[in-house]
Amino acid sequence: MGTRAGRTVQTLAYRLAGSPRAIIIVFAVYFLLQTLIRLFLPTALRVDEAQQVLFQQWLAFGYDAQPPLYNWYQQIFFRLFGTSLFAVGAAKNLVLFLIFFFYIKAAELILSDKRLVAVAAFLLFVIPQVFWQAQRDLTHTTMLMLSVAMLLYLTARLFRGPGTLGYIGIGLCIGMALLSKYNSLIILPAILMAVWLHPQGRERILDRRFILSLALAFALCIPHAIWLFHNLDLASGVTLSRMAENAPDGRFFQVTFGVATFIGGALVIVCVPMLLTALSLLGLKPRGDGAPDRTWYRFFRTYFIAITLIMLLVIATMTLTEIRDRWLLPLFLPLPLFIALWLEQQRFSLARLVPRLVSVALATMLVVPGALIASQPLMSLLGLRTSSNYDWQSFADKFRADEKVAPALIVTGDWRTGGNLRFLFQDTPVVTTTYDDFTPPIDASGERPILLVQTTGKEKFPKMLEWLEKNYGLRLALPEIRSLDMPMYFPTEGEWLRFHYTVVRPVGLVAPKP
Questions:
Q1: Neighbouring C-alpha atoms within 13 Å toward the C-beta of 97
Q2: 349-352: which pairs have CB atoms within 8 A and are 24 or more residues apart?
Q3: pLDDT value at position 129?
Q4: What confidence tens digit (pLDDT) does each residue in 317-352 have?
Q5: Nearest CA to 263 among 227, 312, 301, 229?
Q6: What is residue 415's DSSP assignment?
Q7: Pairing of the two strands 430-432 and 482-487
Q8: Cβ–Cβ under 8 Å, residues 435 and 413
Q9: 122 phi and psi angles, rounded to 5 deg
């Protein structure tokens, strides 16, 4: 019975693989389901989600250590659907779907055998950072992945026939990439090198219309570039400090450590698709009957050589020692296509290979939604503490019950706290001491108090008062700081979320700043 069921799944997988349009529909249904699932998960916002909700309060050319494109994009969904879990989930899953849509369309242009389109798409899906981490977090990274997928698709179309609209699209994609994440500065030169060495690449690059692409990308990035020039410390400080963590003494050892973390992060990304490919090839032998065009195979080989060389140069010059896999994920986006091209070169029997590989990917696709739903209750049963299980709603309800009035302003020391409180107090502006460019108007002499909150300790409260004095000219006396322990959303034995908070009322004003 099990064998018969397995054969049925493999037959369905093989039929699905023969229709790229059907594959697109499968991913559309999957990410629609994931959008609905987000509505039933705990309301605690994860780090990137909380940032989106906090930044939703104002529009700027830059915010912090990441370019602002995803923030701008998310604000559209907040305007359409309100500040809601649906707006957060729909925005994320639309980007994820579009990544696969353009990846599949690019694969159709690049691969000769359309059955390998399914191989490329599903190998991308089984990367853990894609099917799991991107669903739980990752915003700017997914926007960069979309930009790269679109750029690959438009590049493939441009090789088939240059057109002005194609060059405009290339410029748009370059601008999107630069506004998505700063490691696009590694990806774009690598793609340019691969294009230059393509038989038609130099002709396309030397076409006068490529100047139009560069001009459009430049125009899109100018406002953020000006902001970046004036906020370079804010934009680079956090990222560079994280990427220099655990650095050993001595430049040689730092560079060696950085190269090792680069290799380790790359292996984390490539291990699952490569292992799945290897297992699917068991018992199969390459036929070697023919010599298909190797142009695109050499294109991606050049790309990965360029990525490696650029990364080594960056590590050596900037002594980066902590390179995380999610940071590398967009760089390795073309890997599944490269594997599919290699399979095409080797002429394996796709009638046996494709059902094996696609069946595993489809099984993963069925398991992940259930795993997302069950992960928090299961972890609470195991006594494990996770920030996704924090019950922010209980604190909001307790505050409203005690104070009988909404605060005029909420001040926090970090964006996770700020974003979660903004999500629950949507009529109240929320600020954090991290950002000075958002100072909403408040009525400091009215009846509504100012709420100061922190979940990581009490040490940031004096900084909150300094921030209020600096940005509002208010000198406030610090009342007694209260502490409140709230259980987790799914009760976890021995685990509580401790809120430290205090309420500053108009009578707490010392004097206005002259």
A1: 19
A2: 349/284, 349/287, 350/113, 350/115, 350/116, 351/14, 352/283, 352/284
A3: 93
A4: 887 777 888 899 999 999 999 999 999 888 888 888
A5: 312
A6: H
A7: unpaired
A8: no
A9: -80, -25
Q: What is d(CA 27, CA 365) in angstroms, rounded to the nearest whole number?
A: 9
Angle at 88 between CA 333 and CA 235, to 5 degrees: 65
Question: What confidence tens digit (pLDDT) does each residue in 370-417 have?
Answer: 998 998 899 888 888 888 889 999 999 999 888 888 888 999 988 899
153: Cβ contacts below 8 Å, ≥ 6 apart? 102, 103, 105, 106, 109
Nearest to 374 by CA among 362, 360, 389: 389
CA nearest neighbour of 171 among 147, 187, 146: 147
SS3 of 492, please? coil
Instruction: Count the neighbouring beta carbons within 10 Å of the beta carbon of residue 98.
Output: 18
Between CA 466 and CA 478 the distance in angstroms is 11
Query: Per-residue DSSP letters for 175-202?
Result: HHHHTT-TTHHHHHHHHHHHHHTSTTHH
Closest CA to 496 of 333, 380, 416, 412: 380
3-state helix, strand, coil in the chain (%, to 5): 65, 5, 30
Side-chain half-sphere CA neighbours of 350 within 13 A: 21
pLDDT the model gives residue 337: 97
CB 426 within 8 A of CB 87: no
Of 398, 274, 262, 357, the residue nearest 319 (C-alpha): 262
Q: What's the pLDDT at 474?
A: 79
Rounded Cα distance between 162 and 170, Å, is 11
d(CA 424, CA 402): 16
Beta bridge partners of 476: 509
3-class DSSP state for residue 65? coil
Q: Which two tokens stand for residue 116?
A: 């390998």
Using only C-alpha atoms, the chain has a radius of gyration, in whole angstroms, of: 26
The type of residue at 475 is R
Kindly state the percentage of the chain with pLDDT values over 90: 57
98, 90 Cβ separation under 8 angstroms = no
Structure tokens, 512:
């206005």
How many residues belong to the chain? 514
User: How far is it, in rounded angstroms, from Cα 406 to Cα 426?
Assistant: 10
Q: For residue 462, which of 500, 407, 497 has the smallest C-alpha distance?
A: 500
Q: Which residue numbers in the chain have pLDDT < 50?
A: 1-2, 511-514
CB 115 within 8 A of CB 39: no
In angstroms, the CA 447 to CA 465 distance is: 19
